[in-house]
Amino acid sequence: MTPTEIYEAIIFDLDGTLFRGSKAIPGAVDALNALRDQIPCRFLSNNGERRAASLARRLQDFGFVAHAEEIVTSAELVLGLLGDRGEKRRILALASDDLTEALAADGHRIVDDPSADTIVVGVDRQLTRERMVQGLRAALAGAMLIGTNEDPTYPAGDGLRPAAGAYVGFFRGMGIEPVHLCGKPDEWAVRTALAQWGIRDPSRCLFVGDNLRTDIEAAARVGADSVLVLSGVSTGEDVRMAAVKPTAVVPSVADLTLPALAAITESRVANLARATEGGQA
User: Fold this and answer.
1) What is this structure's pTM?
2) Each residue's pLDDT tens digit, 14-65
3) Would you kindly state where each structural domain of the chain is located, as residue ranges?
4) What whole-number distance in Å separates Cα of residue 150 and Cα of residue 170?
5) Three-state SS for 67?
6) Considering only CA atoms, which of 224, 160, 185, 145 is closest in space to residue 44?
7) Which of 54, 79, 161, 264 is most exposed, with the fewest beta carbons within 10 Å of its own?
8) CA 182, CA 189: separation in Å to the nearest integer?
9) Which CATH number is 3-46+184-280 given?
10) How far apart are CA 78 and CA 101, in angstroms?
């Protein structure tokens, strides 16, 4: 069987996979654009700071072919989660300006005091001790805590930086667990994103990312194949130590050519055959 017969879509991560900081991963633009001619490509990002349209423009500036409707971010999932609840909330937003403004545009009231009934935590570049105090008091009064994701770090052009999980960690350190996490590897988050693209069978997807804890774990939770690229967070040594391993490992997306996909497909078919034979023994 060919890759196009096996996979309905390839689901790409963004930061550390297609670009790092202000530069595209060398060779990634040509590789992804070539793959798009054969298999639908979608983008699932734990970026809780930007919405899909903003990230689509960024990808296009790099030279990637990408459209807003092909992208789901953890920011979009936060907005969808609150929208599905059907009620307007009083939100303490310890998050980016973009997400805060989007929450307000959806009709939620943004507050900066313990009267909040919801706390949204992402990457807050203006986080202060006083805002943390307000978050703690709101949580102790019963406010629902929502995290955009639990990534501890993300790869920037000058190295790793604290990601949303580090900010969620402030609350965990105070004994407060988030009610929802709206990013990989959360199964609800992944299945919600796939459903938005009309993908009903996750096992017919191939996830591509640079993080074992998010991208590869996300694929495993929904029964999908995965490829780890070594251009971002996780290393080859991490793979050797990991309990959940990717289907394949390549240096970067530039190496994810059609022949490479064919090899992954052959491995999948062989593994399925061995599993079938084992079940019949």
Assistant:
1) 0.90
2) 999 999 989 999 999 999 999 998 999 999 999 988 899 999 999 999 999 9
3) 3-46+184-280, 87-181
4) 11
5) coil
6) 185
7) 161
8) 5
9) 3.40.50.1000
10) 13
